[in-house]
Write a structure and sequence with these properties.
Blueprint lengths: L1 E5 L5 H14 L5 E4 L4 H7 L5 H10 L1 E4 L13 H8 L4 E7 L12 E7 L8 E5 L6 E4 L4 H18 L3 E6 L7 H12 L7 E6 H10 L6 E4 L1 H13 L8 E5 L4 E5 L16 H13 L3 H15 L15 H15 L1
Parallel strand pairs: 1-2, 1-3, 3-12, 5-10, 8-9, 8-10
Antiparallel strand pairs: 4-5, 4-11, 6-7, 11-12
Helix pairs in contact: 1-9, 1-11, 5-6, 7-8, 9-10, 10-11
């Protein structure tokens, strides 16, 4: 099977190379179509999102993407947002779980955050800054059709994964039109899934409860911007964004990614932790019907993070990207 691979910017090429090495060690029989996007594409091809990259994803229907730089406060529009909207990747799935040996406040986290991926404030519609810089505006649009498509997928995913409890996070007490519509659709869709436990919580209360008692949650379902924030909070419960993968799911196309940034300050220094992209590759393998190989990646990461001497620097260890990847591959070979 052929998949599109976008190494990205900063540490992206290094962690992508590590991930390809692991996938090759698993003998998944995958063919890789390498493409560019972001600052690398702008420098090499004169476009942030080249047409041939879009064509490749359109043909393969599956892509693995490294982090892409997005300027803060100014500059070009997020390439990630453009990809999600171009292919209508309406659901963003971000699982986090505890790994043995990684020191965190909790040791039994197993959460999934699902966010509607193409609408709401995060979509960046109607952004405006007055000429004198004194007034800025942005528009949040929530549609019934978009919410229904996403929420029905969320309930179906919960059922297929054996999850039993969904909590819809909202801000409908204040954002009565947009968040209120999303909440209303959630209440309607839940009636189609009587076998699943359903709850609702205002997002700020959910943030507090995630820190105090995360065991009360199983699957969190919310809108685009709120989900972006809450999913990062959940990543903090398991060791940080270096352990957090993401999947962008559409009707016939899916892009799997590391959810952290491009970290240009450590690019080229052999310091990056490739685990997030490796775990994204495991989600990709699940998606294309290779769950056994996905399990082998996760078990290899569990093994290597269980001891301080075999962890990357960001997790309190001493290993660089290459040495960590070598250990993962060694463990995979020993699994045979």
């Amino acid at each position: 099977m052929k998949i599109t691979v976008i190494p990205g910017d900063g540490i992206g090429p290094a962690i992508t190379d590590a991930t390809i090495r692991v996938l090759s060690a698993l003998e998944c029989d995958l063919e890789f179509a390498f493409c560019t996007a972001g600052e690398t594409a702008l420098r090499e091809e004169g476009a942030l999102l080249p047409e041939k990259t879009l064509q490749s994803i359109g043909e393969t229907k599956v892509a693995l993407k490294g982090p892409i730089t997005t300027p803060v406060g100014e500059g070009f529009t997020s390439v990630n947002v453009q990809l999600r909207q171009h292919f209508n990747l309406f659901a963003n799935v971000r699982p986090v779980r505890s790994y043995p040996g990684i020191s965190t406040r909790y040791d039994s986290i197993d959460l999934i955050t699902l966010r509607q991926n193409t609408e709401g404030m995060y979509a960046g519609e109607g952004q405006f800054l007055s000429d004198d810089g004194s007034r800025a505006e942005a528009k949040s649009v929530i549609t019934r059709a978009g919410s229904e498509e996403f929420l029905r997928y969320a309930f179906q995913l919960a059922r297929s994964m054996g999850r039993t409890r969904l909590t819809l996070l909202h801000k409908a007490n204040i954002l009565k039109s947009t968040s209120g519509l999303f909440l209303s659709v959630g209440r309607s869709v839940k009636k189609e899934f009587p076998d699943l436990e359903y709850g609702e919580m205002i997002v700020d209360a959910a943030a507090m409860n995630l820190v105090k008692a995360p065991e009360q949650f199983d699957m969190l379902v919310t809108t685009n911007l709120l989900g972006d924030i809450i999913s990062d909070l959940c990543a903090g419960l398991v060791g940080g964004l270096g352990m957090a993968p993401g999947a962008n799911i559409g009707a016939d196309t899916a892009i799997f990614e590391a959810v952290h940034g491009s970290a240009p300050d450590i690019a080229g220094k052999d310091l990056a932790n490739p685990s997030a992209l490796l775990l994204a590759a495991a989600l990709l393998l699940d998606h294309i019907g290779m769950p056994h190989q996905a399990i082998r990646i996760r078990r290899a990461i569990e093994e290597t993070t269980s001891q301080a001497s075999t962890r990357t620097v960001d997790l309190g260890g001493t290993l660089g990207t290459q040495a960590y990847t070598d250990l993962l591959i060694s463990y995979i070979h020993n699994q045979k």
